[in-house]
Amino acid sequence: MKKLDSRSRQEYAEHVIDLLQKEDEAQFRDQFLELHPTDQLSIFHTLNQTERKRLYAYLQPQEFAEIFQGMEFLEQEWVSRELNDNYIADMLNDMYSDDVADFLGELPEEKRSSILTAMDKEEAADAKELLSYPEETAGAIMTKEFLAVKADNRVSDVIEFLRKEGPDAETVYYLYVTNQEDQLVGVVSLRDLIVSPTEEKVENIMGTRVVSTKVTTDQEEVASLIQRYDLLAAPVVTDDGALVGIVTVDDVIDIIEEEVTEDIGEISATRGATDVNLSAFQAAKKRAPWIILLMFFGMITAGVIDQFEGTLEEIVILAAFIPLIMDSAGNTGTQSLAVVVRSLATGSFEKKGLWQTIRREFSTGVLIGLSCAIVLVGLITILYGNLVLAGVVAVSIFLSLSIATVTGALFPLIINKLKLDPAIASGPFVTTVNDILGLLIYFTIATSLLMYL
Q1: What pLDDT does 298 receive?
Q2: How far apart are CA 77 and CA 57, in angstroms?
Q3: How high is the mean pLDDT of the chain?
Q4: Is residue 306 scored above 60 in pLDDT?
């Protein structure tokens, strides 16, 4: 297939679209089907409804399947409205089972049942199996298009089998070896097959220490497993060891993107609202509860300031440094939060341990706080000519930042211990808590030294 370069892409696309508009089916098919599916999808995005309908008529469902697989669900959904169920069913029959399940799983029950009825029985059964597993588990994201052989097969027989079944498999670099009960007992690579004598049996060249995962394993753990062992695919087995599918590295890339998006939503208190395709009303509906909740937390901050109203009335200049104390403590805590959430996600936290992590974050806070304190003593003394005021602000910053790093680190660790997503200890919550602590430290020190200010 031809891959367009950046200079000819637009020119070639215009040529292909022109053939479609002229209803030159033969030339259009010849030019369009030479392209990489990514380039086909780019051209598809430029078509109007009339041109799209003509494209559906010119392409077989199996040919359109590769374009459809590259779309996001929202785009797949509106494209499916332009197609009849039989066309959709034929197209899905030629797609990998995990992609089929991802699409069908988002459809209304009635539409899903109609399409499944029109699909081939075997393909429909695979899709139904994947849909039966809990979301975000290995079973739900695996594909059924894998290659399995028996231990007593000869290399020549396996290579012949590979020639027949390979085109329909998602990956041919690993072949999994099963026993008579379809239990996973080994794995053999394509390289091993190529370099082995044709009469050699698979059992003599296969590896028996197979890295596999259960159907109920969380998708994040599956992604971590594939990353840790540098696998192109990981076999998925049932509790009794039966091989039922594989999770490939391209699925892992999607998982990582999905989990990072989810974590960003949690940390920024925009969970479920990070999709730019949401309308303003939908985004506001998802984000407003967080803002309202944080607004109530903000009332606590206001209450702290109110408790020290007498101190502020006597030394009004103290109010000028409230934003500095709050922002510095909140920002430092959020940094620690991000570090710990990331270490939990990558598994590096287990290597460091709780106390080493807390000690490191506290030490970091102490050093940052000390640096800020030294700078503030000089600046405030020069600008305001009050060494005691400079000392109050500097000590407050030092203590606030030291404590803020510990708070930011502890929040996600406690939540992780409760078996919840550590990212739920979102930045705004940690920031608000550290704002309150920072103000308490600041006004407590200022009040105790009030006679010297």
Answers
A1: 72
A2: 19
A3: 87
A4: yes
Ranges of CATH 1.25.60.10 domains, the chain = 9-140
Length of the chain, in residues: 453
H or E element: which one contains 160?
helix 155-165
- Antiparallel, parallel or unpaired: β 184-189 and 243-248: unpaired
Residues of the chain with CATH 1.10.357.20: 280-452
Q: Which CATH architecture has domain 148-259?
A: Roll (3.10)
CA–CA distance, 416 with 27 (Å, rounded to integer) = 59
10/440: higher pLDDT: 440
- What CATH number should be reported for the domain whose range is 9-140? 1.25.60.10
pLDDT digits (tens, 9 = 90+) for 128-176: 999 999 998 999 999 999 999 999 999 999 999 999 998 888 888 899 9
**Residue 239 and residue 184: Cα distance in Å, rounded?**
11
Q: Measuring CA to CA, which residue among 353, 338, 333, 334 is closest to residue 402?
A: 333
Name the CATH superfamily, with its identifier, for domain 280-452.
SLC41 divalent cation transporters, integral membrane domain (1.10.357.20)
Please tell me the distance from the alpha carbon of residue 31 to that of residue 22, in angstroms, as a whole number.
14
Could you give the CA distance from residue 204 to residue 397 in angstroms, rounded to a whole number?
67
- Helix/strand/coil (H/E/C) assignment for every residue in 425-448: CCHHHHHHHHHHHHHHHHHHHHHH
Q: Exposure string (b/e) for 218-255, b if CB count within 10 Å is 16 or more?
A: ebbebbbbbeeeebebbbbbeeeeebbbbbbeebbeeb
For residue 59, give the H/E element and its range. Answer: none
- For CATH 3.10.580.10, list the domain ranges present in the chain: 148-259
Both tokens assigned to 322:
């409230």
Residues 80 and 51: beta-carbon distance below 8 Å: no
Predicted TM-score (pTM) of the model is 0.65
Q: Which residue has the higher pLDDT, 72 or 4?
A: 72
